[in-house]
Design a protein that fits this description.
With 173 residues, the chain is mainly alpha-helical. Helix content is 50%, strand content 9%. The structure holds zinc ion.
């Protein structure tokens, strides 16, 4: 979510799937420093970098192996969440070097999946893909969209399931 308010009615919100890392690169050129980019729209920039760390976890975390201490993992996690500038720099760095990414799932695509109110998201950009929440009303809609989207070259399964979870909750088993 781009803001801290819940989406109360489906007609208020949408899912935006876009290569936000590329936009951040453009913003760096415009504003010259990461700090200035963050100041230009703190909530949005913060959400974007946080979501990259979640949705593209493998790209932003070293291979920690099997025996990582829980406390170490928690420490990394807290650093991830607090360090806005660190996260922004890291997203830009990965984005600039995306042609060298060897993780098979992502290839060079860094399309992030965001849930937002219409009012909270800039709705422009040639690569942007929108789905109004009114079109993801129930489980059948969600499955239909999943089948449709997984054929896209930029398909981001982690981001999509994370968004569905935020939207419909997680089923307890
Ligand atoms: Zn909002």
């Amino acid at each position: 979510m781009v803001c801290s308010n819940k989406i109360m009615a489906p007609e208020d919100g949408l899912v935006v799937i876009d290569d936000f890392a590329e936009h951040l690169e453009d913003l760096i050129h415009e504003h010259s420093t990461p700090e200035a980019v963050i100041q230009s729209n703190p909530a949005l920039v913060n959400t974007i970098t946080q979501e990259y760390f979640e949705q593209f976890y493998d790209l932003f975390h070293e291979d920690e192996g099997d025996i990582v201490e829980f406390s170490e993992a928690m420490k990394h996690r807290i650093v991830d969440m607090k360090a806005h500038v660190y996260r922004l720099n890291k997203v830009i760095e990965v984005s600039k070097n995306r042609d060298k990414i060897k993780k098979p799932l992502y290839e060079q695509f860094m399309h992030l999946c965001l849930l937002a109110h219409y009012a909270c998201i800039p709705t422009e950009g040639p690569k942007q893909y929108f789905i109004e929440l009114e079109r993801i009303k129930d489980a059948k809609d969600a499955i239909d969209w999943t089948i449709h989207l997984e054929e896209k070259t930029w398909w981001n399964p982690h981001g999509w399931t994370r968004m569905l979870e935020a939207l419909h909750g997680k089923k307890e088993t």
